Every structure is written in C-alpha cells, then in structure tokens.
Amino acid sequence: MKDTNKHQGLRNLLVKQLKEKGITDKNVLDTIAKIPRHLFIDSSFENFAYQDKAFPIGADQTISQPYTVAFQTELLQVEKDHKILEIGTGSGYQTAVLCLLGAKVYSVERQNELFKKTKNLLSKLSINVIPKLLSFGDGYKGLPDYAPFDGIIVTAGAPSVPQALMSQLKIGGRLVIPVGENEQIMTLLVRKNETQFEKTEFGDFKFVPLLENKN
Ligand code: SAH
User: Fold this and answer.
1) What confidence category does residue 131 fall into, taking pLDDT thresholds of 50, 70 and 90?
2) Ligand 1 atom at shortest distance from the alpha carbon of 62
3) How many folded domains does the chain comprise?
C-alpha cells in the first residue's frame, strides 16, 4: 500500500482534531502528521485510518486511538536519544511515533503473531523507523538487561503498576501507564529518587488488558 497526497490530507485533518481535543506538543503533532497510520492496520479499515478511533489489529488486540497515542506521548516528554521502553508493541504505530521523535525504543509484545507481523512491517516502512529492540515476552517484567530507561510507556490497561517497571526507571524518568480493570486512569509516575515517585492522575481511558506471560 502507498502513502498518497490524499492520506497526507487526512492526516492533517486528524492533527487538527487532536489540537482541538487539547494536544499541544508540536513535536508530537508533527510526528503524527508524518506517520502513515493506514499502513499499520488491516487494509479493510484503510478508509477509517485517519479517524480518531481504535481498530482491531488481530489476536484480539487494537491499535490505540490517535488521541490516546498523542496524550501518552505528550506525558512521556520524549527528548532525542532518550531510552524509552514500550510495553505492548501491538501494531507498532506508537513505536513508530517514539522512533520518529528521536528516542531509542525498546518495545515488548506478548502475542507472538503480532510480534512477528509488526517486526516485518517496521522493517519495510519507507519512513525512518528503527527501534533499538523489538522483544517477544512478558512486559510485566520490563527489560532488566537494558534498564534504566528515561521513560516507560505501557499501552495496555494494568490492574496495578508493575514493580519491575518502576525499578527500571532512571531518577527523573517518567512512567506513563493506564491503571484499572475495566476502565483505566492515565497515570504518570515521575521517579524522584531511589524510593520515591510523584504520581499524577489524568482522565479515564479504555485499553485492552495487560496480560501476564507470553502467548
Ligand atoms: N501500542 C499499540 C497498542 C496495542 S494494544 C498500538 O498502538 O498498536 C496493547 C498491546 O499490548 C497488545 O498488542 C497486547 O498483546 C499487548 N500486551 C498485553 N499484555 C502485555 C504484556 N504483559 N507484555 C507485552 N505486551 C502486552
């Protein structure tokens, strides 16, 4: 599938909507304007790719809504060369956003089918999206071998904040995680020192669940 002027036009409209919904970070908006989201979803949804909606991506999972991607990315405050851990690679769309922002991205996915599909897709995109590592495994455990991280983003709903992820954050680092069972509260934890985290809660979101082990 190609990326055409029509797709670019639809992306510009999506960015306008995201601004109206309160996203202000110019780097985040510019990145969303660049990434061909239609290539990350099944071609039967192509016409809907630039609506601000979540869609099925197989294995009972969804690509996050663009507003959610923008909101979480804004909270993460990504800077160039930041080492970022993403839990829930899924379609790879959020991974691509982080890569284009200049982060060194480590992403974990527990569904083997999605892991393989997305690894293949990201290697074929014409925009420069090169994650440092795509890993098949259980994101509850994080990636201790590559820690500490400047930022950690969880893209599935967690019943509680996994201790392993908190311990893999640098001092000053930010963990963005939706917490809750049926609905989730977007939660930001900023690590103040070895033992203390500052917690801020944002609005309600709806994610597929963060599940343990791999599949
Ligand atoms: N960022 C993705 C979101 C996909 S939905 C996107 O925009 O496409 C959430 C993803 O988290 C799913 O792919 C699901 O399989 C994955 N997931 C759920 N629990 C996980 C875990 N413990 N470790 C890693 N990935 C997990």
Assistant:
1) very high
2) 5
3) 1
